Amino acid sequence: MLASLPNELVLEICDGLSQADCFHLMLCSRSLYKCGLRRLYRSIIVDSSDICLEQCFEDYYGTRDLCGSKVRSTRVRTSYGTKQLVRTLSETEHCLLVERIEIKQEVELPMARCLFKMINLKCADIPNAGFLSNLDLRSLTTNRLKKFNRTTKELRLTKYSPIDLAQMPALEKLCVSGMISSSLKPIRASLSSIFHSNGTRIQLKEFGLESAIIHPEEVMSLKTNFDFSQLRVLRLADIVEYPCSSQGLALQDLCEFDLNRWISHMAQSTECVPEKSFLMQIAPDLVNLQSLDLDVSNCIYDYGAELISTISYLQTLRVKISPTHCSAQTLDKMTEKYFESIGLHKGLQHLCINTKQPVKLESVRTHLVGLNQLKSLQLCISLNDMVELADIIADLNIEYLDIRSPSCLVGQSLYENLHDIFTNKSLKYLRLKDKIYDIENGRIAGPKLDECFEHMLINA
């Protein structure tokens, strides 16, 4: 009966099957074998580690994005399995079926030769992409980039690598790192050393910048290179913003100056020009922003709350509040300011607030209870406030809750009573310290759960 269906329908059925079920289906007939083969080789994950996940997170780990559509991936989890995969791809034409590949280990020469034969490859997540020249490649994640593909629309660099924007005119999503590895210690690169352009201006839908130093003089060049008017997602992680000061350093001296001495130098400075802040300069262009990941340090003044207030509509917000050289009283005022700006976004669905100290529940009660569309929440609170927090969020439709606490030990009695404390029917999963709980069935065990849960917090 199934074999009599058109191949398009059988392929769609195979795409919804797990890896094991697809194997079993392929044994039924030749036509089903061919359809199952496409499912198994379309998207491949090579991690050479035995990852055992509960069913609730299995779908997340094996599901990947392929040019805008979600597909299930075949996982190769052992070194023997990797050798067999390389042998099969080398001796057959199965490499023509591969459209997405993700490799979590250093690529050796035999696998590199297989990658060269994957002429239909559209998405790749590999350590070294210097040898990739696939014409149809649309999305690339790598740490070393030697060649540029003019058709690439999505690029993520996990290590520092200068980019010539003129060679990538089709780029829509870009995430780069400014962390330079050296023999002594990692150092942050300045923004101007990452991007190079000959007048090319790219309109981005998603932009991410990690571990970089930003000088006020560089902001204009950033706005010249990129058009942020259609930007939907902005990620700024581990960014040190150089505040404008009369005692400040020149741009050309920024990379050579010791970062710790520089922070101490700026903390003693009292003169600052707020309107020249990096965040406030790009704020007017973020008219279509829906997702914001904010971790920017400024030694004199924190502009994060002001930025959040100026954005008209946010669905996802992840913010880290960790000012340096700040008194406890000033930190409390700053945190309250953040909560006030967050409370303006009634359409928020995913909210992660990362603080070193527990937040005051009065701020949570005042500003977050009106966020009726909230599905996931991350907060740092005292364990003594657990019951009160549960009461505050009882009427919200939160499905994923992540509670961070500075307390070193969590009593076993608290774990045993989690189901009774959190009575709201919508809550599915709760992470407390290093343990993740299915509220109905108890603790979930297994490696890689933290990575999966982090994804759920912003994509539930």
UniProtKB/TrEMBL annotation:
InterPro entries: F-box_dom (IPR001810), LRR_dom_sf (IPR032675)
Lineage, broadest ranks: Eukaryota, Fungi, Dikarya, Ascomycota, Saccharomycotina
Official protein name in the record: F-box domain-containing protein
Domain F-box: 1-44
